Amino acid sequence: MAEAKKAGCIAGAVALMGAIGALLTGVANFGGLFKSDGGTQPSSSSSPAAPGATQPPAANTPAAPATVYYQGHLEFGRFNFDLKPPKRTGDTYVWGGGGVFESYHDAAKLAVWTSSGTPDRAACASAVDEQGKTYISGTEKGNHVCGRTAEGRVFRIDVTGVAETSDGGATGDVTVWDK
After folding, report:
1. What is the pLDDT of residue 167?
2. Beta bridge partners of 161
3. Domain limits, the chain
4. Can you tell me the distance from the alpha carbon of 115 to that of 123, in angstroms, rounded to the nearest whole number?
5. CA dihedral sign, ordered 76, 173, 100, 90
6. pLDDT single digits (tens) 62-92
7. Which of 53, 79, 144, 153 has fewest C-beta within 10 Å?
8. What whole-number distance in Å separates Cα of residue 91 and Cα of residue 78?
9. Among 118, 169, 166, 165, which residue's Cα sits nearest to residue 145?
């Protein structure tokens, strides 16, 4: 009987030590979430999560791909890219021809893509933020023209043709992304 009591005491002690270890691990993990200077900002170190706990998404998780609002080939005339499909609306439009793209009545801000490759939505938005204007010239076949509409849609025109004269229209493959 003394042997059974001794075995029970040992089993209880082992269980207690396991519980204390789990408690200390939990405290250590909780403490690792905060800066050591007493602030409440999460630290960059990662600690194992407690079972069943959910972790917030990482700050550098890539954003969902931008949704395309309109995509198609246009023979340039006068287009409002806030409409689906783009078409002329009164005197608010983007016009392209003879190496020039121009925005009338604040239809859009425009920028020629000057880096290599084809810009995505984020790159076009950045180009417009940095160099957007209502009139650009010197565009030629193969250029990418980025823009942002009056309603905030970002677009890209992949120039497929430019007429030799200023009264001739340009052609391009257009992608307009949702706001």
Report:
1. 62
2. 171
3. 1-61, 68-177
4. 10
5. positive
6. 666 789 999 999 988 899 999 999 998 888 9
7. 53
8. 9
9. 118
- What is the CB-side half-sphere exposure of residue 1 using CA atoms within 13 A? 0
Q: Which residue has the tokens 């700050």?
A: 59
Q: Is the peptide bond before 57 cis (omega within 30 degrees of 0)?
A: no
- 91 forms bridges with which residues in the sheet? none
pLDDT: is 138 or 28 the higher one? 138
Runs of H (alpha helix) within 80-150: 121-131
Quick one: 99 exposed, middle or buried, by C-beta within 10 A (0-12, 13-18, 19+)?
Answer: buried
From start to end of the chain, where are the E strands?
Answer: 68-75, 78-79, 93-97, 100-104, 108-112, 135-136, 144-149, 154-161, 171-177
> Is there a contact between 144 and 91 (Cβ–Cβ < 8 Å)?
no
Which residues pair with residue 144 across a beta bridge? 158
SS3 92: strand
Q: Is the pTM higher than 0.90?
A: no
Q: For 95-148, what is each residue's pLDDT tens digit?
A: 998 889 999 999 999 999 999 999 999 999 999 999 999 999 999 999 999 999
